[in-house]
Amino acid sequence: MEPARESPNAPSDAILEVRGLEVTFATDRGAVKAADGVSFDLKPGLTLGLVGESGCGKTVTALALLRLVPPPGRITGGRVLFGGEDLLALSERAMEDIRGKRISMVFQEPTTAFNPVLTIGDQIAEALIIHGGAGRAEAHAAAVGMLDKVGIPDPAERAGTYPHQMSGGMRQRAMIAMALICRPDILIADEPTTALDVTIQAQILDLMGAMQREFGVAILFISHDLAVISEMADEVMVMYAGRVVERAPADALLAHPLHPYTQGLIETLPRHGVGRGRLPAIPGTVPDLGALPDGCRFSDRCPLADDGCRAADPPLTRAPGGRWVACYKAAP
Amino acid sequence: MTRFLATRVAQSVIVLALMSFAIYALIGLMPGDPIDLMISADPKMTPEDAARLRALYGVDKPVVERYANWLMAALGGDLGYSRLYAAPVLDVLLPALGNTLILLGLTLVLSLAIGLPAGVVAALRPYSRTDYAINLFAFAGISVPAFWLGLLLIIVFAVILGVLPAGGTETVGGAGFWDQAKYLVLPVVNLTLASVGGHTRYMRAAMMETLRQDYIRTARAKGAGRARVVLGHALRNAMIPVVTIIALQFGYLFSGALITETIFAYPGMGKLIFDSIMGNDFNLALVALLFATLVTLVGNLLADVAYAWLDPRIAYR
């Protein structure tokens, strides 16, 4: 194990500090908070895994870091501290200088995330042209070099092809090349392997690990798949209905989940050689953000919930071993 | 691409040939023929005279035989004689064709130059005041009848202000570029106002749709500013559907500017087709309609070429 895992809570070494992030969507039935008081740190060279079911606020949290939340969503609270500055307070112009240069993003669908009418090489080089003031030829050469680094064969020729002429796995490699070409401090990967088949998925995960070692980039890795997260992350954060319910070093979280929701997620993982019966499932469904249960948001699906849980929402509190959990019933 | 073009040109020739027969047959189905008009013009004409004239002009033969005769002559370069204008068909047609292409070209350039940017601006801030203002003008342009607007323009600029001529193409004896340009202003403005609203709305819709795409978010995540996102990433994608509309409109405007041409006494193709059909001038109507077909075919071909240029996913083989 890397020694860095031993001290996940030392405050000074964080490159990005998110505090109380709140994203609100205006809907027909009023405002709903898709992310509600989300706080975490990203540390150089380490990966924070963000896990949760669809609609729990993972993607919205990621987009909020770059201030790309689509309307009718709005960031309504919190701070995103990066290099001593609150990104949420920057001008749009200053934010453009951060995007793609200091913080970049890899998206879920490499098929739709590339512009269909521009070549891969041009799209990768564009980030350098925007930020580095690089000339076309120079940026193009750098793009070819980056394609080579992410393991695309014949990169010079590939740079001249269009997205539809590449396979899904190749496109995702190219997407990673595009995200890393300006050597960012932070890479946000929003379900980067979800659209790929399993063998390609493993290759992309390996590639991201290798790129992290080479460039020392901090990664926020988002997935609904705890198995993928466990492979990638040093620390894991679990979100449920817009809230962080648990945060812990990856090994500890997988071995001893404290929150009943995390326990449920881990139990639903299929395991080799164990049983042939039905996979366990968490009863009920994710609550509608517009009609949350009183108190703890998980209380209506939680086997341990009592009147206390339904009376007040449990805050995220420190637990032994550098962990955080938002549950009154959390097993110590 | 070369092979695609060759195929399309061949297809166009076939379509033209089929259309020439269809138009010929349809004209043949019209009540009355040129001889009927002669009879009504000359009460002394006897049924025997009429029959002799029908035989002379060949109108008594079956339509297929007549068509075959026409086709042979046309392929030999003889498009026939316009009865109405008492001149060879091409001599009547070519000036009208030139007039229409000038009118149409100016209208298209102007309405694209206004409509496309207006649509983009509206799409950038949907449901804002700017958007509502642009939409108001667009819907007004679409909704106001062209003939009413044309009359209004004449009343204001020709009658009340007296700064522009009400109709025609040039002052008698006062030829010259600026003189002719003055005569074009009102018809071009009229047609532009009628078509710019549509262009604006199509562009706005296509741009709004494009700006919702994932790759726009990717571009923004790269740090691209608004101008780069819109001009570098969105515009080319948004133009793909708009090109179709423009191409279709091209063919329509060519022969459909009848009302505007009539109001401004502008001798273009729309008016020529209308007059030749009303006057039972078969030869002229046939060739004029074929030209309209040709222009529509060329418009569609240009649209296909434009697709391939805009969208690398479209490869013609």
Outline the structure in words:
The complex is a heterodimer of chains A (332) and B (317). Chain A has 332 residues and is α/β, with parallel strands linked by helices. Helices cover 32% and strands 23% of the residues of chain A. The longest helix of chain A is centred in the middle third of the chain and has 18 residues, at 198-215. The two termini of chain A are 24 Å apart. Mean pLDDT of chain A is 86; it is low at 1-11. Chain B is mostly helical and 317 residues long. Chain B has 2 domains: 2-88, no CATH class; 94-310, MetI-like (MetI-like fold). Chain B is 77% helix and 1% strand. Chain B has helices at 2-29, 34-41, 47-57, 63-75, 89-124, 129-143, 146-160, 177-211, 214-221, 226-256, 258-263, 269-278, 282-310, and strands at 81-82, 87-88. In chain B, strands 1-2 form a two-stranded antiparallel sheet. Chain B is globular and about 85 Å long. The model of chain B has no long low-confidence stretch (mean pLDDT 87). The chains are: A alpha/beta (332), B mainly alpha (317). Chain A binds chain B through residues 66, 68, 70, 93, 96-101, 104-105, 107, 109, 112-119, 126-127, 130-131, 162, 164, 178, and chain B through 213-215, 217-225, 228, 232-233, 236-237, 310-313.
